[in-house]
Write a structure and sequence with these properties.
Shape: globular
CATH superfamily: Gamma-glutamyl cyclotransferase-like
Structural class: alpha+beta
Mean pLDDT: 93
CATH topology: Hypothetical upf0131 protein ytfp
Number of strands: 7
CATH architecture: Roll
Largest sheet: 5 strands, mixed
Distance between the termini: 26 Å
CATH class: Alpha Beta
Strand order of the largest sheet: 2-5-1-7-6
Strand content: over 45%
Number of domains: 1
Order of helices and strands: EHEEEEHEE
Radius of gyration: 13 Å
């Protein structure tokens, strides 16, 4: 099992059903060393950025995903985002989408 960290739309029921055709197991967590950006993708979608503050945390949720789920999520996020592996407050590591 892999983990995907979401700080935005991937936490929404309707989005999960549209992309993955099911609801994903999800629980709250925080990504370490990241913050919300003041910029938005396409003028409306949240973006995150690496923080200069090593104590910065980004609240969100971790989703339990399969490799096929990650492929579906990559398609959903599109070419403006890239997926990177980041540490979480829980001690797990998860994939996180950031702007390219």
């Amino acid at each position: 099992m892999e983990y995907l960290f979401s700080y935005g739309t991937l936490r929404e029921r309707k989005i999960q059903l549209a992309i993955f055709k099911r609801l994903l197991p999800m629980r709250k967590d925080e990504a370490l060393g990241f913050i919300l950006s003041t910029q938005k993708a396409y003028g409306k979608y949240l973006l995150v950025q690496k923080s200069d503050n090593p104590k910065a945390v980004l609240p969100g949720a971790i989703l339990e995903v399969t490799p096929q789920d990650l492929i579906q999520a990559d398609r959903y996020e599109g070419p403006e985002y890239q997926r990177i592996l980041v540490p979480l407050k829980s001690g797990k590591q998860a994939w996180l989408y950031i702007a390219k």
